Amino acid sequence: MLKIKKVALGISGGVDSAVAALLLKQRGYDIQGVFMQNWDIADEKGFCSADADYKDAAWVCNKLNIKLTHVNFVKHYWNEVFCTLINEYESGYTPNPDVLCNRNVKFNHFYKFAINDLGADAIATGHYAKTSFGPFLEKYDPDKSVRLYCGKDWIKDQTFFLCQVPQEALRRTMFPLGDMMKPQVKQIAIDNGLEKIARKKESMGICFIGSRKFQDFIREYIEDKPGDFVNVDDVTTVGKHNGIHQWTLGQRTRIASLPHAFFTAKKDVEKNIIYAVKGTKHPLLHTNLIFTSQPFWIHSRPESLELNGVLECQFKFQHTKKWVDCQVCETDKGLIIKVNKYKRAVTPGQFAVLAKDGECLGGAKITNTGVSHFSLYYLENRNIKKVSPILNKYVKKEKKDESDLTDNEDVKMSAVNR
């Protein structure tokens, strides 16, 4: 068992890290609170959320009689997260800053700062996640690698954002809230004099954007590059955009001149064209085949991939969505993932996260998607027989009720015959 006396806790000013601090204190640890400032640029109203969050973090630490250190990781965040984001957006991808921040800042620079500079034996966070070493590392084994498990509260479970966390940091990380539900956490805060924090509105968006529209924010870092919205079905120009970096797949285009809602379906970076489709249920928005970059396996490469080359597990690419069954193969370029339920707007740049039996196995960046249902039906309805059979080799159409194919039960994947 690892002898732990001093724990460095990442404290944000929110209720989760506040209750994590309380639970650690109740167990008698010497707690060093650490407020990580990753962003220091004010919005258009001159407001920087980091200032308000630090005040709340200081209030919590004062209430619990815990020491607090303010550490500036702005440079690290800028170089290792934000610059990557800008490059990804310019390349037509839609990155996930939370995954990158956890991998590059919280479980890298914060971890090293806690161990090397503060002399901590372990770190702790308020994430809703669990590990095989227990919420307080009571099952720590120096001879074993640690496994990451989904939190008890499946709605708040944050293993999705931890899919790239390295073993070194994860082995020394406590997740005190892993076995708790969010309402329980809030009630503990209220019962222990932390009602001010429990009633605080939770931040849901990307921290550095705040209340601004994304297009207005990204314009400060990437110049507008006007191009066309093109209707996939009749290949006509239906509107203008100010840059592919301002749009993500599945997003409503809000082209004022159109009588019906159109949605972003594909982006052509070289031609600076955004291909749009009519209606949120258009089959071009749905696919069941995903390609990724090389994966990061948290514990180890799954044994089934070693034995038979196929991993039966679960997949998600959005934190708020439920896990869906899938089959995974690994190549020298990355993963090929076939999901059993068609997914809408699977977006290159986001992370494909895999889990099995409640364990988060790891994840990889989505690089592309396979042939959409639209492509198959489009070809078949135009009797392009030389191409359609080839495509069907790669996308097997299972005989299922149409309502089983996508997240939207009433989506009809019938032929697009225009």
UniProtKB/TrEMBL annotation:
Catalytic activity: 5-taurinomethyluridine(34) in tRNA + S-sulfanyl-L-cysteinyl-[protein] + AH2 + ATP = 5-taurinomethyl-2-thiouridine(34) in tRNA + L-cysteinyl-[protein] + A + AMP + diphosphate + H(+)
Main subcellular localisation: mitochondrion
Location(s) in or outside the cell: Mitochondrion
UniProt xrefs under Gene3D superfamilies: Adenine nucleotide alpha hydrolases-like domains (2.30.30.280), HUPs (3.40.50.620), Translation factors (2.40.30.10)
GO cellular component: mitochondrion
InterPro entries: MnmA-like, MnmA-like_C, MnmA-like_central, MnmA-like_central_sf, Rossmann-like_a/b/a_fold
Enzyme Commission number, as recorded: 2.8.1.14
Domain tRNA-specific 2-thiouridylase MnmA-like C-terminal intervals: 290-366
Domain tRNA-specific 2-thiouridylase MnmA-like central stretches: 215-276
GO biological process: tRNA wobble position uridine thiolation
Keywords: ATP-binding, Disulfide bond, Nucleotide-binding, RNA-binding, Transferase, tRNA processing, tRNA-binding
GO molecular-function terms, A-Z: ATP binding; tRNA binding; tRNA-5-taurinomethyluridine 2-sulfurtransferase
Xref: HAMAP family: tRNA_thiouridyl_MnmA
Similarity field: Belongs to the MnmA/TRMU family.
Function statement: Catalyzes the 2-thiolation of uridine at the wobble position (U34) of mitochondrial tRNA(Lys), tRNA(Glu) and tRNA(Gln). Required for the formation of 5-taurinomethyl-2-thiouridine (tm5s2U) of mitochondrial tRNA(Lys), tRNA(Glu), and tRNA(Gln) at the wobble position. ATP is required to activate the C2 atom of the wobble base.
This protein's name: tRNA-5-taurinomethyluridine 2-sulfurtransferase
